[in-house]
Every structure is written in structure tokens, then in C-alpha cells.
Design a protein that fits this description.
Keywords: DNA-binding, Phosphoprotein
Radius of gyration: 18 Å
Organism: Microbacterium gilvum
Largest sheet: 6 strands, parallel
Distance between the termini: 36 Å
Protein name: Response regulator transcription factor
Number of helices: 10
Strand content: 15-25%
Number of strands: 6
Pfam family, one: Response_reg
InterPro entries: CheY-like_superfamily, Sig_transdc_resp-reg_C-effctor, Sig_transdc_resp-reg_receiver, Tscrpt_reg_LuxR_C, WalR-like
Shape: elongated
Length: 200
């Protein structure tokens, strides 16, 4: 049996997928979680073979959950998302995610992907893969991305500076360059673009 943990903050989707996967003879759903924090706790406790994680969850998103788990236990992760942005795919794959597919796929396809991932393979939805190959590269430097990542929840310039061991003036300079590169007026707008493209 392939032991599967499901995590999705939308209860109807989570319970429907769980019910459909339970119809498969070789899949056992061992946990249904409503957010990323619960998914991490339950996965560490139950050590499932595969975690099927929604990308957009409160607290920790699916990619963050997968990254945390890949460093702690042998479980493999599949991320599903309603908005399959190419940049998110790159972030997911670099975080150890073994499967990536849109929520528009049926439960039978999710089951097939779970089997492939449990067998040690990787799976990326072909449409998402094609979009990722055609997508533009991130124009920001790693340090500029660090500034956005650390300040993504509205942290002050001083807080970002302390977290990154930088001078506040250096952080302000980075923010100015980021705004210019992305053609936006505020740091919040820059964070939104970076998140939508999967850069942070």
C-alpha cells in the first residue's frame, strides 16, 4: 500500500480527493490536513510515502512544506495548484518536490502521479513544463530576492537589515533597484510579482 497524506485548506476539495483516492486498491490516505503547519506535524508523525500538497495554503505553502520534509524524512511530495505559474515550478523542483500538477486534473491522474512518485520517479505536468521553458528568467539578483523574501510580510527596513546583516541604507538601495527593475512603485507590489512568478 502507498500511504498518502493530503493537505489542502479547501475542505471540500481535500475530502473529495481523499474519498476518490481511497477507492484505489493500492493507496491508503493516512491523514487529511487543513494547512501547511498541520501537514508538517502529521507527516513527521506518520511518515507517509507520498504527501499531496496544495501550493496555496495559509502559513506554510506546499513548496515550503515539501522543502522542510525533504530534509527530515524520506517522504516524497507532489504539489498541486490552481494557478500553475512557471516560476513556482522552478522553486518547487529546487525544493525537492517530486511531482507538480494543476488542480484541474482528475483523481485518476493524481493517483497515477502518486504511484510514479512513490516508485521513485518525478512527474511534471507537460503543459506546465512547456510554459516554464518559455518563461523569462528572474531579473533580480539573489541578494535582491533575499530582501523581498525577508520583507514579504511587511517587515520594516530595519528588520530586513538585521535579518540579513546589512546596513539599512543598503536595504533601501536594494529596494530602489528592485522597484526599478520590476517597474513598480512599492515593495509590496514587487513581492507580489516575485511570488506570482515563483521567484520567492
Amino acid at each position: 500500500m502507498i500511504r498518502v497524506l493530503l493537505a489542502d485548506d479547501e475542505a471540500m476539495i481535500r475530502s473529495a480527493l481523499a474519498a476518490l483516492l481511497r477507492l484505489e486498491e493500492d493507496i491508503e490516505v493516512v491523514a487529511e490536513c487543513a494547512d501547511g503547519t498541520e501537514a508538517v506535524a502529521e507527516a513527521l508523525r506518520l511518515q507517509p510515502d507520498v504527501c499531496v500538497l496544495d501550493l496555496e495554503m495559509p502559513g506554510l505553502d506546499g513548496v515550503e512544506v515539501a522543502a522542510l520534509l525533504s530534509r527530515r524524512i524520506a517522504t516524497r511530495s507532489v504539489v498541486v495548484t490552481r494557478h500553475a505559474r512557471p516560476g513556482v515550478l522552478r522553486r518547487a523542483l529546487s525544493s525537492g518536490v517530486a511531482g507538480f500538477l494543476p488542480k484541474s486534473r482528475g483523481a485518476d491522474e493524481v493517483a497515477r502521479v502518486v504511484r510514479r512518485v512513490a516508485a521513485g520517479e518525478r512527474y511534471v505536468d507537460p503543459e506546465i513544463a512547456a510554459d516554464a521553458l518559455a518563461d523569462e528568467r528572474c531579473p533580480l539578483t539573489p541578494r535582491e530576492l533575499d530582501v523581498l523574501r525577508v520583507g514579504r510580510r511587511g517587515e520594516t527596513t530595519g528588520q530586513i537589515a538585521r535579518a540579513l546583516s546589512l546596513a539599512p541604507g543598503t536595504v533601501r538601495n536594494h529596494v530602489s533597484v528592485i522597484l526599478g527593475k520590476l517597474g513598480v512603485q512599492t515593495r509590496q507590489q514587487a513581492v507580489l510579482i516575485a511570488e506570482e512568478n515563483g521567484w520567492i
